[in-house]
Design goal:
The complex is a heterodimer of chains A (413) and B (463). Chain A is of the alpha+beta class and 413 residues long. Chain A contains 17 helices and twelve strands. A five-stranded mixed β-sheet of chain A has the order 1-2-8-5-3. In chain A, strands 4-11-10 form a three-stranded antiparallel β-sheet. A two-stranded antiparallel sheet of chain A has the order 6-7. The relative contact order of chain A is 0.18. Classes of the chains: A alpha+beta (413), B alpha/beta (463). Chain A binds chain B through residues 49-50, 53-56, 58, 60, 89-91, 94, 304-305, 307, 354-356, 358, and chain B through 367-369, 373, 375, 377, 396-397, 399-400, 403, 415-419. Bound molecules: flavin-adenine dinucleotide (FAD). Residues 18-19, 21-24, 43-46, 53-54, 56-57, 87-88, 114-117, 136-137, 164, 254, 257, 293-294, 311-314, 316, 343-345 of chain B line the site of flavin-adenine dinucleotide.
Chain lengths: 413, 463
């Protein structure tokens, strides 16, 4: 055992491929505070669940800033826009999320996500057909990444012909979320990202303006046209919401799909069952969200007063890290937690968080991943991993493979 | 209880469940899940497989769900003998037999009583028989009421503004129907949540176009020549014309069939210990008769061991599971039923949820949000402790407050919370009506310490 703090080991890239033994270690100290000024780290399911519902724990970027800089905080890059509801507390959070929600789901738009099913299936089919004669693919670049971008474009109402342009702005933006890229900023890349942000902002503003004049059946139109009791979003709020949905949405889905395929390839029996029964994908995805959640840690919380957890006082203004992925394998909560078992009776998880910030895009991510995995399982003939473990992205918070090379014998029609 | 007996019971004993609804079904499933291999019989007076009631006053009334499609999903095979459409009419504790309305008798080794409650009918029978006077408890009630609402009545009159009555009014408004609600207390939901929250509910109703009449009682229902209801007379001498009247005066425990059985059963339910074992009328615990769901009243450690009667969906499930577990366990393996009371409702587009026992609270503090915006969490205090919380459109915080209740956290609430407004810094009187005047539908009743109801004086609602 080294003397490097556990917290450092978790963020250390060397442990990215398999952080789970570290999480197990972490759970031995449910309230871990290793360094002066460092975060309080929580890893037990019940503690995390409680803190996600604790009105004394804030997500407000202003409170967070007061709690001190954190090199790993995944600040979303909204480029001069006001903070999105992800970084706000009630009542502002509630107002914005409510308006966004009325554009996205029930009761106002009960079918919005489900109506994308056909489009999603067609996109997935197109991407898989695109593998062509190749017998080896990189699932990330050729599938898991382009798929959610296409979906979010459809949802927001980005015209098909603009999609390539749109993607060329989004890609560098997403890349800036990677802490490694941030720590060694290549001036050329930084300039490019800055440029992309501006272009994206202007592009979205243009779309918003157009939707104001001529609403269509898409999410942007609904955001613009939200005339609920709490009024409408301002133009800036619409933009920051759109950027949030865009980035938070697909960055995580890429990992969910990729982690999913990786897990299935490591559990060929489940892959085989999924091939025969696409309906199993519902359970597979839920269990994946427990077993390999794309968001491993929620690092953006702070206390607005002293609070006590398990007899330890967390002082006001302390940073709070919630290690969702550790809670998801907490034996206090789950039977046989280290086993990937879509048949478990008690399919629960913290994969989408919980409480008021619980993943806004969950219904979308679920459906995307269900369709993606069941289609891959059905069409890839005898798929296997070209390397295991695959190379990972730098990021410890949004954890997932950077590439996933898969070898297979052919494509089923 | 000898270990051998429990072994035998689990293997080949006979368990009878009376009341084939939510609690009955969940108990049956739990018995099987925990390895009961003997003979299982469910007796229910309704002719249907167990179905879910909460949608009956919500989506079903709106026509979004059919009353026929509210069956409760089965969690597992129960392999039970179902005797549906036949009521239990009596219980012989000594001979361990349940008597049925069709003259049959069923023997048991262990019995679970899960007969729930029924809607309290309009007390004047001839008026109650008028065509257009409805109740809402069963699937048949819902089908009937649905049909009448779809026919587009000129006005619906709801007697009683408890949860059920308010939900019905909400459904009517959503369907564009004119609706009048009469309430004896000063506001809707006061029995359940007190006057401060009741005032918010009142605004909610009036702003949504409900003709809300408070501090009045209905004195008579008037019929036309062919026996259809046509008007409602109120204690303030006003008369409201209506062609549908929904009587929503709370409920009565289905314990009549236990009269004379020797069980501690009465108008407030069947008293039992924390392990769901029924008491007899002397306050002595039985060991082969168990109770669960709306019909049960049991002591709760978190609330001073007061007996609580809960008309809560979640309680019916949890208590059924505990009762079933305890029915086939030895003493030391038994669990107490210490469920945190929790109730939800939705009306006029607002989600309402409570945890704990609000009517126990004397004081109220708005710890998040604001009454004016109708998005808030209110915390109830009793003798310096947090005993309950209610939320309007703020459900996700309630888990936190449930834990505060479990911990016996101090009241008034001292710590800051997000979204705390000036109104939340001071506790105010929660303003519950005098408990000796039962309002209908509080959904939690503190029913005293006595296991038997012999001394109890019951005040039926006088409307
Ligand atoms: C319209 C409506 C809306 C509701 N909404 C909510 C809500 O939003 N949230 C919430 O928490 N709760 C709600 N509830 C309450 C919830 O439905 C009850 O708590 C739950 O049904 C209790 O289940 P139970 O099995 O104990 O009793 P019940 O569901 O009442 O079942 C008892 C069964 O036993 C039968 N029975 C009675 N006597 C006999 C006899 N002698 N022999 C044979 N059978 C008999 C009855 O006919 C019935 O079928 C609502 C209830 C209603 C009616």
């Amino acid at each position: 055992m080294t003397h490097t703090s556990l917290f450092r080991q978790i963020t250390d890239f060397a442990n990215r491929a398999d952080p789970y033994p570290l999480y197990e270690e972490l759970r031995k100290t449910p309230v871990l505070h290793e360094e002066e000024g460092g975060p309080y780290v929580f890893s037990s399911y019940y503690d995390i669940e409680a803190l996600l519902h604790d009105p004394r724990v804030s997500s407000d970027s202003a409170n967070l800033a007061a709690a001190g800089e954190d090199p790993l905080a995944q600040g979303e890059e909204t480029g001069g826009l006001p903070p999105s509801f992800l970084r706000l507390d009630p009542p502002e959070h509630d107002r914005l999320r409510r308006i966004a929600n009325s554009a996205f789901g029930p009761p106002h738009r009960p079918r919005r996500v489900d109506d994308l099913r056909g489009d999603m299936a067609a996109t997935v089919k197109g991407l898989i057909d695109g593998f062509g004669q190749a017998r080896q693919i990189d699932l990330v670049d050729q599938f898991a990444y382009p798929f959610p971008v296409t979906v979010i474009c459809r949802l927001l109402g980005v015209p098909r012909e603009d999609e390539p342009r749109f993607r060329s702005w989004v890609d560098p933006l997403v890349a800036t979320l990677d802490p490694e890229t941030r720590q060694n900023p290549d001036p050329e890349f930084a300039k490019q990202a800055q440029e992309a942000r501006m272009q994206l902002g202007m592009y979205l503003a243009g779309l918003v303006e157009q939707r104001t004049k001529e609403p269509q059946d898409d999410l942007l139109s609904d955001l613009v046209d939200s005339r609920g009791p709490e009024g409408a979003m301002t133009m800036m709020e619409v933009l920051s919401t759109a950027v949030l949905l865009l980035i938070a949405g697909h960055e995580t889905t890429v990992n969910l799909i990729t982690n999913g395929m990786l897990t299935l390839l490591r559990h060929p029996d489940v892959l085989q069952r999924l091939r025969q029964d696409p309906g199993l994908s519902v359970r597979v995805v839920e269990e994946l969200l427990r077993y390999e959640p794309p968001v491993q840690i929620v690092p953006q919380r702070t206390t607005i007063t002293d609070i006590e957890v398990r007899g330890v006082t967390i002082p006001k203004g302390a940073r709070v890290w919630l290690v969702l992925a550790a809670g998801n394998r907490d034996p206090e909560r789950f039977k046989d937690p280290q086993r990937f078992d879509p048949d478990r009776e008690d399919l629960q998880h913290l994969g989408f968080g919980s409480g008021i910030h619980s993943c806004f895009g969950a219904p979308l991510a679920r459906l995307e991943t269900q369709i993606a995995l069941s289609e891959l399982a059905r069409r890839l003939e005898n798929p296997r991993l070209a390397e295991d473990p695959p190379p990972y992205r730098q990021n410890a918070v949004l954890r997932g493979p950077r590439h996933l090379n898969i070898v297979f014998d052919g494509l089923r029609p | 209880m000898s270990a051998d007996y429990v072994e035998w019971l689990r293997r080949e004993g006979r368990i009878v469940i009376v009341g084939a609804s939510l609690a009955g079904l969940r108990a049956a499933e739990t018995l099987r899940a925990e390895g009961f291999a003997g003979e299982l019989t469910l007796i229910g007076d309704e002719p249907y497989e167990p179905y879910d009631r909460p949608p009956l006053s919500k989506s079903v009334l709106l026509g979004k769900a059919s009353p026929r499609h509210t069956e409760l999903p089965h969690r597992r095979e129960t392999d039970a003998k179902w005797r549906l459409g036949v009521a239990a009419t009596g219980l012989d504790l000594t001979a361990k037999r349940v008597r049925l309305a069709d003259g049959d008798e069923v023997e048991y080794d262990r019995l679970l009583i899960a007969t729930g409650v029924r809607a309290r009918p309009w007390p004047k029978e001839d008026e109650a028989r008028l065509d257009g006077v409805c109740l809402l408890r069963t699937r048949d009630d819902a089908s009937d009421l649905c049909r009448r609402l779809k026919a587009g009545p000129r006005r619906v009159f709801v007697i009683g503004a408890g949860f059920a009555g308010s939900e019905i009014a909400s459904a009517c408004r959503e369907m564009g129907l004119a609706v009048t609600v009469a309430e004896r207390a000063g506001a809707p939901l006061v029995g359940a949540l007190g006057g401060v929250i009741g005032a918010v509910a009142a605004d909610l109703q009036t702003e949504n176009g409900v003709d809300l009449r408070t501090h009045v009682t209905v004195t008579a229902l008037e019929g036309d020549a062919v026996g259809r209801v046509r008007a409602v007379h109120l204690s303030d001498e006003s008369v409201v014309e209506a062609d549908v009247v929904v009587v929503s005066l709370g409920s009565q425990r289905n314990t009549d069939w236990l009269a004379g059985s020797g069980l501690g059963a009465g108008p407030r339910g069947v008293a039992c210990d924390a392990g769901c074992r029924a008491f007899d009328f002397r306050g002595i615990v039985t060991d082969d008769v168990f109770v669960a769901g709306d019909v049960a009243r049991s002591p709760h450690a978190l609330f001073g061991y007061q007996f609580l009667s809960l008309e809560h969906w979640g309680n019916a499930v949890a208590q059924a599971e505990t009762a079933a577990h305890n029915m086939i366990c030895r003493g030391a393996e038994r669990r107490p039923h210490l469920w945190m009371p929790a109730f939800w409702s939705s009306m006029f587009g607002v989600n309402i949820k409570s945890v704990g026992v609000p009517p126990m609270g004397e004081q109220l503090m708005i710890t998040q949000g604001s009454l004016a915006e109708r998005r808030f969490v209110g915390v109830y205090g009793h003798q310096g402790r947090v005993v309950a919380a209610v939320s309007f459109d703020n459900t996700r915080w309630l888990e936190f407050y449930a834990r505060q209740i479990e911990r016996g956290a101090p009241f008034p609430v001292e710590f800051p919370t997000m979204d705390r407004r000036p109104e939340g810094r001071q506790p105010v009187a929660a303003d519950f009506p005098d408990p000796s005047l039962p309002t209908h539908g509080p959904t939690v009743t503190l029913s005293g310490y006595s296991p038997a109801d012999q001394q109890l004086v019951f005040h039926p609602a006088r409307h």
